[in-house]
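Checklist before submission:
- one chain only
- standard amino acids only
- sequence pasted in full

Submission:
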Amino acid sequence: MRFGLFFQAPEAPGQTHAQRYEEMFERIALAETLGFDVAWLAELHFGGAFSLLSNPLMAVPVIAQRTRRIRIGTAVSLLPLEHPLRSAEQAATADLLSGGRLELGVGRGSIPSQFHGFGVSVAENRARFDEALQIIRLAWTQERVSFRGAFYQVEDVAVVPRPVQQPHPPLRIAVHTPESFAHVAATGLPIYSGTTTTPLPLLRECMALYRARLAAAGHAWREDQMALMFPIHVGVGGTSARDAMRPGVRKYYENLRTIFSQLPDSYADHLPRLRIIEETLANLPYEKFFHDQAVFGDAAEVVDRLQAARDEFGLSQIIGWFDQGSMLPREEAELAMRRFAEHVMPKLA
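Returned file contents:
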């Protein structure tokens, strides 16, 4: 079992953007001393209230300079928004400058503001993702690359630099809907999901579908097949831990509303999801969230819930989001990380 941390790094009152990055770097350095294995950085665009991490690959070598062991992942690089040759170059450079510590999580993305901002059709995201992933894998495994697709045409180019890890950095595909789980099973690649977008009841359905499609495609279940991210808080008591995270859970949905509501109504594709977010905020079902999407409690409760998830879903990696909504005092969030490392990780390893 490996243990990771998830970072989204939204804006915070009283802090500059540079200070928010510095705090994230310091927390990752602390995580290394506590024994965490991977720091996962989101890629999100055009909404500082939600995240400042528009280019996580640029942060990889900085983190590597400040640490010695912890691996650095993207959760996830949004392939439809970038030319795949540039994605291959940037990821290889990050792997080189980090001494071979990159873990490349990739996904198609679904937040409309990102596609609106870059002028890419959200309806094309799956097809663009498929082509981009093919090209990136070819770029890292062939001396010269040629490819003709619906969106990208590449004719006889050599992509440099080469990544340190051979044949390439570990790849992991983000999946959050039944359609995505079924679709990516054909690749056989390891997957990443999160309970903030795929609550546990839905995840059970998705994983049954994924396992069936994986087997049908002739792929065996790999040791590192499944990583899952949970909002996690380890407190001194279950009730107090859940109460401590109520403001952060609400802030998370408020931040979602902010980025969705900033799109022009003429865009229209975002309006159904915006209505769902508004309805959720009007009557936020905390108890349902705590049960289906988060792991907030004392150490014993967190161990029990994560052991159950590990065994049910065959998890190889548990990724904790230790300050969802960024409403906890820094000291409290870091104390939760320490409790997790001391009291939870040894029981799950």
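Reviewer check: The mean pLDDT is 96.
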